[in-house]
Structure formats: structure tokens, C-alpha cells
Amino acid sequence: MKKSAIAIITTLSALVFAPASFADINDDLANICTIVKNDDKSELRKKLRQVQDDYRLRLGDYYTGISCGGSSLIRYSMENNSVETGTYMIKRMSKTDLTGAEKDGMELKQWAETNGHLNTEIGQELLSRIS
Question: pLDDT per position in the chain (131 positions), as tens?
């Protein structure tokens, strides 16, 4: 009887505390746009490492699912002149991810050229990475 009571209490406490320990990836990535806008490379690095450790996902796996004011993360970094975070993300992503079409059908390079961001530090890092 005593063992079954302990087992029940252990199970109930695990159920009560489980939602806090198994946070949703959306919650973990909630402030990533602010981090990019503030050009906080250190905080971005921590955030990406946390998501990789918790969910075994790399930036390229969830990059297309994140939108900051209608823009992808790298586009958003270009728009806000967030050089540190923009170049860091470019270095962390594969060529395939960087050359693929985004939601509007344009590749990142095309968009940067059209919007005058190709000659910025982030644009130059993009060019050197995909070349």
C-alpha cells in the first residue's frame, strides 16, 4: 500500500511539473526577433544552442518558420543593420538553405540586391558564403 501511494504521488507530481519542463519550441523562440533587432550575437548564440540542445534542431531546420515583421531572420537583420547577428546566422546555415526561395519566391541574394542590402557587411558575407 505504501509503495503504491508513493508511485501515485510521484506520477501526479510528474504530470503537474511536466508542462514547465517540456516547453514548446515556439515559446523558446518567442523573442528571437528582438534579439536579432538588438544585434545581440551572444544572446542569439545562447538561444540557438538551447534550441539545438532541447529539440536537436539546427537553425536551418526552423529558419523558414520564423517571421519578424513579415521578413525572414536574415532579411530582418539586413533591414535593421544588425551586422553581428546577420553574419552569425549566415555562417550557421548551409548554402542550400541560403540559396533557396523564401516565402515570397525570391532568394535571399535577389532580395538583398533588389532592396540595396547586397553591398552591406551582411550582404557581402552572404555573397562569400554562397559563392
Answer: 555 444 444 444 444 444 443 468 989 999 999 999 999 999 999 999 999 999 999 999 999 999 999 999 999 999 999 999 999 999 999 999 999 999 999 999 999 999 999 999 999 999 999 99
DSSP 8-class letter at 64: G
DSSP code for 79: H
CA 124 to chain centre: 21
**What does the block give as the cell for 78?**
539586413
Q: 122, 83 in Cβ contact below 8 A? A: yes
Q: What is the pTM of this model?
A: 0.81
Q: Which of 122, 129, 131 is nearest to 73 (CA)?
A: 122
Residue corresponding to grid cell 541560403: 98
Q: What is the DSSP letter of 93?
A: S
Spatial contact of 74 and 84, defined as CB atoms under 8 Å apart: no
